[in-house]
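Chapter summary example.
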Amino acid sequence: MTQPFRTAAGGHVDRARAIPFTFDGKSYTGHAGDTLASALLANGVALMGRSFKYHRPRGVLGAGAEEPNALVSVSRGGGRFTPNLRATQVELYEGLVAESQNRWPSLAVDVGEVNNLVPPGVFSAGFYYKTFMAPAGAWKGVYEPFIRKAAGLGVVPREPDPDHYTHRYAFCDVLVVGAGAAGLAAALAASEGGARVIVADENPAMGGGLLDEPDLAIDGQPAAAWAAQAVATLVARTNVTLLTRTQAFGYYAQNFVGLAQRLTDHLAALPAHAPRERMWKLRAGRVVLATGAIEQPLVFPDNDRPGIMLAGAARTYLNRYGVKPGDHAVVFTVDDSGYAAALDLARAGVAIAAVVDVRPEPGEAAALAANAAALRVLSASVITGTSGRLRVSGAEIGKVGPDGTVRPVERIACDCVLMAGGWVPAVHLFSQSRGKLRFDDARGIYLPGEPAQAQLSVGACNGAFGIAAALAEGFAAGGAGAAPAVSGEIAPMGGGFQGAVPHHRDPQKVKAFVDFQNDVTAKDIRLAVREGFRSIEHVKRYTTNGMATDQGKTSNMNGLAIAAGALDKPVPQVGLTTFRAPYTPVTFGSFAGHSRDHLFDPVRKTATHAWAQANGAVFEDVGLWKRAWYFPKPGETMHAAVARECRTVRDTGGVFDASTLGKIEVVGPDAAEFMNRLYTNPWTKLEPGRCRYGLMLNEQGFVIDDGVIGRLAPDRFHVTTTTGGAPRVLAHMEDYLQTEFTDLKVWLTSTTEQWAVIAVQGPNARRVLQPLVDGIDISREAMPHMSLREGRICGVPTRLFRVSFTGELGFEVNVPADHGLAAWEAIWAESQRYGMAAYGTESMHVLRAEKGFIIVGQETDGTVTPNDLGLDWAIGKLKPDFVGKRSLTRPDMLKADRKQLVGLLTADPAAVLEEGAQITAEATPIRGRPALGHVTSSYASPAAGRSIAMALVAGGRARMGETVFIPMPAGPIAAQVCEPIFHDKDGSRLDG
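The structure predicted for these 992 residues follows.
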């Protein structure tokens, strides 16, 4: 028989479909529906991994996400290599290639196992803190190379991941996490009332523990059949979405839950272009957590040999996959659930050598069932050690006396030991949601307390460990009536024996493991307490207990109990480690989604990008945008091209793509009041059809953005922002609207990519646009500076702004982005009648600097106020309040020596200063004396016929006419402080 531990019948695998796979280069066969772990167990493979520190042989411990031992690497070729997967969660597919990890040269013969032979204390808790301190210089030459070689689990993939990943945003009335008895009940009840329900479960099939209960009946039918019927009912309801292979890994504010869905890892043939995983970013009206409970191992000497596993996992392998964990089993239990495992295995032909029960006697139902099955029960007994190398071969049994001492009594031969150490509610997501936990003293477990969000915990994660209790809580959570009747159940009470099991052996010479993956033992935790660690968070970090990839699912509570015992304190007084997202590891690909390779930093192009490229533009990156920097003619340098573009704009005109400006639509009956509160300027009396320069501050009173804002209607504003500030400003607005100004009826919409913007500037701007517009009078009298009109241009809708960022007569043509290129080409063709030029961002910077116009982010550094920039005129003097107003009156904001925006004219007109260069009062500054400020903008100005610069200088406006210095490697450069306006100071050119 190729699968000697496969039962003759039973389970939910497809026995008609044989699935070939390899593990460590050896071929095996499983069945469709198997996991890698269940298929290996069916083939008699107990050894699946090596521990991290001691390289001890390890087999599978659990059957799901709690697994700490059986970590494997899976390779699919073509760059598809994934380390550190749990064999318990890897679904079998034809041709699967898996490798064990953390061993050399092989899994059976691992040189690293020598670590297990070093004297006690060498690798004890915190050894790295003590060992690597001396001798001096050894860190670089000895310790660090050794640690780098030894550290980590698995091997980092060497090739780029060829798969792609996707994100999806979703909303529902009720999210149910977990599709066991409680989860299915909650989903049935909630969806029956018409609620939109999403059910997420990490497993390939829904049903949870119901699939492992052969003796359980619900409303007279087998538990698995009831689960299948419930799933079929949910599938038929159009208001229900069922997500299998989907892990809820993080629970965030306002019922925002992250779900990681595996889409193709279980398939032998990968569909073309199908995403490997999908991350759901889900907002729910209410969340029902039905995440179940995690069975705990027992901490006794040599409790980690292959073949020693959780009793609940053994039931799963038997009843879900038709796999026996061994032929001769010892069941070590602290509650009745161990008896359920023993009974199932005995019926499947596994010889139960003994049920070793810590308690003086089992529960009544368990005792009756054990007697009926003629099971040998050793009460008030413990396992004090095991034997065997690559698989457990025997268990040492001890009798616990009335005084707690242990007397060795016998050795029992076995090939598997099943631990039933009690059940701990999976409260991780509840804790992530900021819900407070409460400690149940009677059962020794933490339970969900008062929720912090619209959330309910039901079933085992709420301490209701039996199926009957879970169904009742699930139906109640969904608003339904009575739950179905349940029969044939041996229900655990939860909790159990926590901490180290008593034994008669020398505690300094045995290894009783608490954290299986990180090789943390009971004596390590006691040592941490002896060395002064009192908080469980400190004990965790000193010992690394609970810091492995399983996040302490099977080690936290035992470690906490051992520490509490060593401190002689109740468990709640020692504290509880923090449950952080993700609940189980999530691939980097899922988080990245499409943001990888050339999409890692998305490239945004305007509608005219292709035209600019065809016309020789050189591009620069501005935020995420590609913007035309300048348009050189053949043989032109950058400086020559920029000078030509600037002169052309001032002499006849130019056309510029300003589409990258941020654009936000502010709409609603309270839109004007909202603008009053967010911007320094007054907006209530601004008439529709007019524009105003807007200045935005943060709470500290510092400038964070500016832009021209047009009022389209009494309840509608078209807000422009800086290119890089668009997302920041929208987030700032939303933050205040949702948290501070909740009384205002306002809606915000980002329209940055909806509108293409073409700036037409210069003396001929009006002549170029006149024949192209329809229904708009753009004459000087009808459309003065800082006004806007809606109509059509080139046959498409437009919002036409009469604004200028060059100081020349100017218009900004806003058209739907789909028509942006056509409008540009029509405007360009008309502009050529007047010899106008296309100009880029560098010329735009020069033109605006000649007029003294600022750019937020260039003339500001996060500590600049409106007064520093000479923009007091942009503050509404009669406004009762706006964000940042009170901060403007702080004493430090009114100091005369604050850095203020000024102009600089170098003594040598040809010298162009370096932007960012420091400014000092002396040609040779005294070391330690602070600089006066720095250069913010600096250009060669065609209009001024010389270099110009803008700068932030301490007390700058009082220094007009003074000479300052800019120290440079070639020597200091002298410059005169002046007004920051270098061209057309009276503004006469604005009207052409």
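To summarize the output: Residues 336 and 362 are 7 Å apart (CA to CA).
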